[in-house]
Specification:
The chain is built from 17 helices and 16 strands. With 663 residues, the chain is of the alpha+beta class. The two termini are 116 Å apart. The structure holds adenosine-5'-diphosphate.
Length: 663
Amino acid sequence: MSFRLKTIFGIALIEFIVMAVLILMNQLNFGGTASAQLFNRAETTARLFSTMVSDAVISTDLATLDSMVASTLSNDELIYLRVLGPGNTVMASGGDAGALAEPFAEDADFDAALGDHRVDVSHSIEIAGQDFGSIELGVSTAQVEADIASAVRWNAIGAALGILLVAGFGYLLGSILTRQLSILRDGAIALEGGNLDMRVPVKGRDELAQTALCFNRMAEALSTDRAALVERQATLIEKRDRVEEIVYCMGRIADKQPVHAIPSLKRGDEIGDMARATHVFQNVMDEVVRVRNEQDRLIKAFDRLNEEVVIFGVDGRMLFSNRAFQRANMGIIEAVGDDLTGAAFLSTGIEIGEFPDLAEGAIGPDFEALSRMFAGEGGVCEVSRKGGRHVMMQGTRVEGIGTIVTASDVTELRDSQAQLIHASKLATLGEMAAGMAHELNQPLGVIRMAAANCQRRMARNRAEPDYINDKFDRIIGQTERAAQIIDHMRIFGRKDEDRSARFDLVRAAQDAIAMMRAQLSGSALSIEENIDCSAAMAVGPRVMFEQVLVNLIANARDAIIAQAGDDDDPSGVIDLRIHKAPDGTQCILEVCDTGGGIPEQLMDRLYEPFFTTKEPGKGTGLGLSISYSVIVQMGGTIEVENTDVGARFRLILPLENSEHLAS
Ligand code: ADP
């Protein structure tokens, strides 16, 4: 229902209720007054008439009574009139016969009279306090009832007119009020429909005008907001498009597809930041792809290597292994399972017999070196593997990665080295042949002299037993010396050698010096010994170690001779010093010469196999490379430096301690 109708109905209803109440009150008031007046009039008429007829009743003047009744009945309101004398005898009466015929019943009030539409009243006729009869009369209520009905009718008409009037005014008022509301409603509908330019006229200063004002302000605010929103939406759409472009580029970069140019790189806003971040991402991805390719190439290269390569992370777990490692260590890898660590590799390898020399749980330098290597400390160690293989293992610690362990099969190298050493020994033997001859000649000469002297004495019969005995002792002593030299040469010429034998480094050095001295005898070159310790027990191949010292002394000799140039009898001193480290765990052997030293540019190449500066036929270039591997095998190191006059080679070798000796 519209507001206008509600207003009209509302006002009409109020008006109706008000009118109904007024009419009711008016009716009640009017009806009450008219009926009371009628009642009073009837009673007054009865009283006055009783006074009027009292004389005629006393005198029983019936004619007067009739005339008085007739004249009183001229009043139209009276329906009947009856005069009763003593004993209630009717003395005169007149009026409506029907009413007179009815038995008299006095009405107590107006409502009681409405039943027969007349007010029935009576009044006694008293004279001096004596009762002579009574007057009974009936007054018609028709006029009063007609007046009341008329009043009701007019009231109703008035009320209806009033309601109509009020409804009309209500309509007008509603129309005025709702017109402004309708304008507001139309405005709201227009706003709802999106017309934010809609404004409503503001008339007056009432509440509706204020509402209209508020409406206009709201529309203005909405309009402004919408303009901002539209602008923002346009910006957002533009940004979304740019973001989509960048996201597209990101997707391509992530899929490793080429992206030639990332859009919006120069923008100063967050899209620009995103574009620049994508650019960084692209660079990172390029780098990742490059590194991955590089990694793949490296892995392929590693896989092509014959050397075994394995990388253990800082936590000890295996990060990478190449094919050669996987092939060579399949047994260990299968036995350990997925969680391969350096320590597990070594312990399982020993357990399943992959390291035969360590299988008995032997604690030796090899085991300690390997344990340190697989614990991530790095180092170098040569170990024997199942099947008679020799493997040179090298562990290198790399900061942030862990330990890289490489293993090269040096079986062939060792075999050829053994052959080379043997050949080298034979060459040394050959070189030493002259000195040897001299060495053997000396005892042989002494023997020959002693025998000849004995012969001479015996020929002259002067062979005293003491003299002969003395000569025999001499002969025996010289024979032993010769036998010693020959024995040593025989041992030196042997091919195979126990690499885990214990021997005295000092004794071995002295034997090497003796051999070289024999060779240098007759020249102006000399070997000096400076030995600070009586014995230094080590583990390794004794003869090969002697060969190392022979090589170093021979190189020193060659350097001195080379420096002398054309001098036929060059002189010089080769100094061999031996001492132990203060803590007694290492033995340091130094070979110093006066040969002028080694050019700095050659220092890095000295240990390369076949590197020599000597004339063809004189040098093999194997001396130092063999020496290096022998010393490394023994767990030691070899260093070289120049002194003021020549070169100094220093060997640092671990000594066998008493604990190990016991085992
Ligand atoms: P070779 O002695 O057969 O040449 P080496 O491996 O023993 O092979 O030595 C390699 C090279 O090192 C020598 O040719 C020489 O140039 C250099 N060299 C070794 N020792 C010395 C030394 N004491 N003084 C100078 N140069 C040396």
